[in-house]
Amino acid sequence: QESTVPGELGDPAAITAEVAEPGAVTIVVPTFNESANVRRLLHQITESVPSRLPCEVLFVDDSTDDTPHVIEEAAKDCPFPVAVLHREEPVGGLGGAVVEGMAVAGSEWIVVMDGDCQHPPSLVPDLVATGERAGAGLVVASRYLTGGSRAGLAGSYRVAVSRVATWLTKSLFPRRLHGISDPMSGFFAIRRSAVTAEVLKPLGYKILLELAVRSRPRQVSEVPFVFQERFAGESKSSAREGLRFLRHLVGLRTASPLARMAVFGLIGVSGFVPNLLALWALTHAGMHYVPAEILANQLGVVWNFLLIEHLLFRDRRLFRRWWDRLGRFALLANADLLLRIPLIALLVGRSGMDALSATALALVMTFVLRFVGTEALVYLP
Ligand code: GDD
Ligand code: MN
User: Fold this and answer.
1) What is the DSSP letter of 254?
2) 8 A C-beta contact, residue 282 and residue 295
3) 3 state SS of 105
4) Strand order in 25-31's β-sheet?
5) Which residue ranges run through the membrane (predicted)?
6) Cβ-based burial of 149 (10 A; exposed 0-12, middle 13-18, buried ≥19)
7) Of the residues 79, 217, 237, 270, which has the maximum number of CB atoms within 10 A of its CB?
8) Burial state string for 315-330 with b = 16 or more CB within 10 A and e = fewer than 16
9) What ipTM goes with this model?
10) What are the start-end ranges of the H helices in 59-214?
11) CA distances to 30, 86, 146, 256 from 203, in Å
12) Ligand 1, atom nearest to 32 Cα
């Protein structure tokens, strides 16, 4: 059998036409500078997959080294189609690459796996077989089932980070991740029909999480696996990737307006910290508490603005320049303060409410107004 290697930005349709039969698998491998690993990976796949399941392999590559070239050379020895989709613009990082790969995959099943040999290809046919047997849309290779392990997760630091991240994520999405013991896994099989590409907003490493939460495949199965040591080179994960993961979590969790409002409120409460610190510093420096509080409050406003810009409305910063947004945001925040006192007076005076209830009600009212105002006046055209 001949292997087709379209090469850089080759015609992916050429390979998708070749293996489109049901039950076949497209293995999507995201790669970033993995030239020392891809030959071995293709060799491992050759040994364990085609004799059990027709397959094609699609690398989605964001490398700055010669990974695409090495793949093309190694592909000549493969008894199945291999293609490289090299991206000039690495939008969305690892997750973005996987989604682009899934869009051109030609088989009924898509298996996503890493390019550094941490995921054993011998499991690929088992993942698909499990999905067929259970009628599942998604089959996760899990390190946390009996028989699985995270042997290859180097160092107790990474194990701890991984454990905390898994716990946090599972608590944030108890329903969506029900039955998924390892939502952080980068190794899974998904039916093409279960991928709802229109609703996906991949951001960084956790593409399985993205799919489980936004595509909501109707039935999920799991298979244990042993996470191997990386063959060559180093993990591409970094502190920056960790921040991206937090942003991804917030984005997933705040898809509904109510959840967005809750996070907006939490951010608002966190603004008391810089506010009080500044107030303390300014009054200690001898400033009168009234101007000190006005200044300190502005610091809280800026703090809130930064968090909202970078966590909550990150993908909505499209319609105004940043200083325009900051100006409007600050205006709303100060209007909120100015509005509250007359509102309380009105509630007490007109409807005879007691001062405490009136204050609480006014707080809630101005908060909701501020949230709605921020969405409408700062982040919409
Ligand atoms: N195309 C593309 N673009 N590929 C990328 C990018 C990118 O920006 N960043 C990383 N990759 C590729 C790597 O080249 C590798 O093939 C694969 O994605 C995984 O990257 P690693 O850097 O090896 O990740 P890891 O070993 O730290 O993390 C893996 O295991 C975690 C579980 O502990 C990943 O599978 C994670 O998703 C998983 O959570
Ligand atoms: Mn790895």
Assistant:
1) T
2) yes
3) coil
4) 82-86, 55-61, 25-31, 109-112, 188-191, 138-142, 220-224
5) 262-282, 288-308, 329-349, 355-380
6) middle
7) 217
8) eeeeebeeeebbebbb
9) 0.98
10) 67-75, 93-104, 124-134, 156-172, 207-210
11) 14, 18, 30, 18
12) 14
The total number of residues shown for the chain amounts to: 381
Q: Which residues pair with 223 in a beta bridge?
A: 141
For residues 98 and 60, give the distance between their C-alpha atoms in angstroms, rounded to a whole number.
Answer: 7
Q: How many CB atoms lie within 10 A of CB 196?
A: 12
Q: 303-361: per-residue pLDDT in tens?
A: 999 999 998 998 889 899 999 999 999 999 999 888 988 999 999 998 888 989 999 99
Dig out the tokens for 168 from the structure.
């946090």
Does pLDDT of 9 surpass 80? no
Q: Is the CB of 186 under 6 A from ligand 1?
A: yes
- Distance between CA atoms of residues 195 and 162, nearest Å: 26
Residue 101 and residue 28 in contact, taking contact as beta carbons nearer than 8 Å: yes
Q: State residue 17's pLDDT score.
A: 42
All residues at 6 or more sequence positions from 278 whose CB lies less than 8 Å from its CB, including other chains = 292, 295, 296, 299, 300
| CA 63–ligand 1 middle distance (angstroms) | 12
| Tokens 């089932």, located at residue | 145
Axis-axis angle for helices 239-253, 257-270 (nearest 10): 130
Q: 232 CA distance to ligand 2 centroid (A)?
A: 9
Q: Of 167, 129, 337, 165, whose CA–CA distance to 237 is shortest? A: 165
Q: Ligand 2: distance of its center to the CA of 262 in Å?
A: 35
Phi-psi region of 219 (alpha: psi -120 to 50; beta: other; left: phi over 0): beta
- List the Cα angle 169/380/301 in 5-degree steps: 70
Could you please report the per-residue DSSP string of 343-357? HHHHHHHHH---HHH
CB atoms within 10 A of CB 288: 9
Burial bucket for residue 98 (CB in 10 Å: 0-12, 13-18, 19+): buried
